[in-house]
Amino acid sequence: MSKWTIGIIGGSGLYAIEGLQNAQWRRVETPWGEPSDELLFGSIGDVDLVFLPRHGRGHRISPSELNFRANIDALKRSGVTDILAISSIGSLQEQYEPGKFVIVDQFIDRTVARASSFFGTGMVAHVSMAEPVCPRLSGFAAEAVAAAGGKVAKGCTYVAMEGPQFSSRAESLLYRQWGADVIGMTAMPEAKLAREAEIPYALIGMVTDYDCWRTSEAHVEVSEVIKQMQANGDTARKTVAAFVAALPERREASPLDTVLDHALITAPEARDPALLAKLDKIMARVLGR
């Protein structure tokens, strides 16, 4: 696999890709249901891109109601080799002020109401999430933010909360005690599913607010978040362009391309044909399809 096909998952603040050539929206069907929206196919230079608006165009879908499995499966079916996710987030630390961009390298998953795996009874798999993002992509992402003129911090821990409500102050203070840096509602199980699909994943977080741990400030409100999202949006779009422009001409293989070699545990004779049918694209490589 020597050609890059980059999947861009745009969250709050990034709803389109500028400079996309031969752009075309297409519906992609999956055995897991409908993804958030049609996918936008196109290219920038020699790099193919597939853009998915995480919440749907017009921000229609709540975080807890996103069909994460369909979203990742649709990107896999579209030939995506790597995923760059971009999300608006809250800050849990003073040094990550609104307007700053962070490169996430760890997660604390506090979501409770979402299907978090493609696998289950009849086809069990356990992928490692010790290092949950792709270091190669994360490095490219950090350089792209800087090239776009943004302030960027690396090595941040992201708390994924269920939502759609914002945190209580007690929760926000607790997450700070845990050593978390930022908070959001959509990175999990998105990153877990990308790993199961053998797609390297990186996350750029765009800080919009200080959550509610700062007692000297008003608590977070959507109106203020939207203002900062709009301010972040131009840098985010420039970041995508810089990210694509800086990719090496050839995509060298990643260890994350073959994680299922070390994850499948169900014996072949005990595998459920119905579940295998749904996993046709996720497991295509290991099934020899």
Structural description of this entry:
- The protein has 289 residues and is an alpha/beta fold.
- The protein is 26% helix and 22% strand.
- The chain contains 7 helices and 9 strands.
- The chain has helices spanning 68-77, 135-147, 169-177, 190-196, 222-246, 273-278, 284-287, and strands at 5-10, 21-26, 39-44, 47-53, 82-91, 101-109, 152-160, 182-184, 201-209.
- Helix 2 (135-147) packs across helix 5 (222-246).
- The longest helix has 25 residues, at 222-246.
- The two termini are 16 Å apart.
Query: How far apart, in Å, are the first and last alpha carbons?
Result: 16 Å
CATH superfamily: Nucleoside phosphorylase domain
What's the tally of helices?
7
Poorly predicted regions: none
* Sheet of most strands: 5 strands, mixed, barrel
CATH topology: Rossmann fold
Q: Any guess at the CATH architecture?
A: 3-Layer(aba) Sandwich
How would you sum up the global shape? globular
Helical amount: 25-40%
SSE topology string: EEEEHEEHEHEHEHHH
Number of domains: 1
How many distinct beta strands? 9
Helix/strand-derived category reads alpha/beta
CATH C-level label: Alpha Beta
Percentage of β-strand residues? 15-25%
Mean pLDDT across the residues is: 93
Give a quick rundown of the structure.
The protein is α/β, with parallel strands linked by helices and 289 residues long.
Describe the secondary-structure layout:
Elements: E1 5-10, E2 21-26, E3 39-44, E4 47-53, H1 68-77, E5 82-91, E6 101-109, H2 135-147, E7 152-160, H3 169-177, E8 182-184, H4 190-196, E9 201-209, H5 222-246, H6 273-278, H7 284-287
Parallel strand pairs: 1-4, 1-5, 5-9, 6-7, 7-8
Antiparallel strand pairs: 2-3, 3-4, 5-8, 6-9
